[in-house]
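Quick one, probably user error.
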C-alpha cells in the first residue's frame, strides 16, 4: 500500500520470495513489522531516494522486549533487523530511506544485516532514528562489494547500559 500505516511486510516479502527485486514507489512509505529477507542472489530492494521503509515499533513489531537484551540469539531475529541477507552473492539495498519508528530506547534494532555474503551493495541510503545497536548497518564475514553514499543520522540513546551507536 505504501501509506505508512498499513503493514506492507507480506507484500514486499512475497516479491523477495520469488527471487525478484523490490522496487519501491516514489514518495511512498512502506511500513514493515518484521524483517524483510533477501533470499536470492543479485536481488534486493531499490528505491529512487524518496521511498521509505518504516520499521514499526508497536507491540510485537521491532519493539519486543528481547530487543533490550544483548544476547547473540536475538541479534538477527525477525524483529531485530529490518532487511537481512545471509550467504548470498550480490544482495543490495539502494537509494532507500530506512527509518525506525522509534519507541523505547535501549532497543538493539538494526536497519540492515548482511552476513556471509559476496559482492554486496549498500548505496545511497538515508538511515535514521535508531536507538542503541551493535551496528545500525551490520556487515559480517563479507567478501567484496561496496558500501557508499549512505547517511546514518538522528540516532540516539540515553542509556547507561552496554551498547553503542555505530
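Nope, works fine. Designed sequence:
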Amino acid at each position: 500500500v505504501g501509506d505508512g500505516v498499513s503493514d506492507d511486510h507480506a507484500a514486499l516479502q512475497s516479491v523477495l520470495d520469488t527471487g525478484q527485486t523490490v522496487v519501491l514507489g516514489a514518495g511512498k512509505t512502506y511500513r514493515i513489522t518484521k524483517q524483510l529477507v533477501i533470499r536470492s542472489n543479485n536481488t534486493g530492494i531499490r528505491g529512487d531516494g524518496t521511498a521509505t521503509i518504516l520499521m514499526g515499533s508497536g507491540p510485537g513489531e521491532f519493539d519486543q522486549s528481547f530487543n533490550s537484551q544483548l544476547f547473540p540469539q536475538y541479534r538477527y531475529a525477525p524483529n531485530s533487523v529490518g532487511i537481512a541477507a545471509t550467504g548470498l552473492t550480490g544482495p543490495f539495498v539502494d537509494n532507500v530511506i530506512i527509518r525506525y519508528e522509534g519507541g523505547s530506547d535501549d532497543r538493539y534494532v538494526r536497519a540492515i544485516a548482511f552476513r556471509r555474503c559476496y559482492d554486496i551493495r549498500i548505496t545511497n541510503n538515508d538511515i535514521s532514528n535508531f536507538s542503541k545497536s551493535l551496528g545500525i548497518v551490520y556487515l559480517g564475514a563479507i567478501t567484496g562489494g561496496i558500501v557508499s553514499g549512505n547517511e546514518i543520522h538522528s540516532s540516539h540513546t540515553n542509556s547507561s547500559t552496554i551498547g553503542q551507536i555505530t
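Residues 70 and 113 are 16 Å apart (CA to CA).
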